Amino acid sequence: xxxSREILDLELVDSLVKxxxxxxxxxxxxxxxxxxxxxxxxxxxxxxxxxxxxxYTGDDSLHWDDFAEAVALFAREFDKxxxxxxxxxxxxxxxxxLGDVRALGANSIVDTKNSLFRxxxxxxxxxxxxxETLVSSLxxxxxxxxxxxxxxxxxxxxxxxxxxxxxxxx
Length: 170
Description:
By secondary structure, this protein is mainly alpha-helical. The chain has helices spanning 2-8, 10-16, 23-33, 41-49, 64-76, 78-86, 105-116, 131-137, 145-152, 159-169, and strands spanning 54-57, 60-63, 117-119, 125-127. The strands form 2 sheets. It has a two-stranded antiparallel ribbon. It has a two-stranded antiparallel ribbon with strand order 3-4. The model is unreliable at 145-170 (pLDDT under 50).
């Protein structure tokens, strides 16, 4: 999480994408962005509804907005970061070592949340699109009955409740 905070310092970003010692830090951030948690549909809902969301790794935490900004900066600077890997013996001089971080779950969830919801001055979350578009936008994320039920905290009594769980998530 420390590196995510460093990325937020716009004066440091330019040096971080040029520093020979930083590929390991970029790799660690990309590894975090690959976590399965970022592919779950209910996470979009939880982030959209949260007044304050934090990402925890071990004892360290980072406000979601800061993490989202670090992810967006990583995606924006990705081509420069890839060049660091081309020059790194540790990562086999492979500029494609990370894959495309812009396609990772964390980047997708940041983009999706920002394009679907906006917090307003009131306690309400403003939806920027209609329900049909919302449901189709969330198809890239995983959903399962068990995960839906976990969010609702209930056991389904039939198909209606399972469908209701999916609608609640969407």
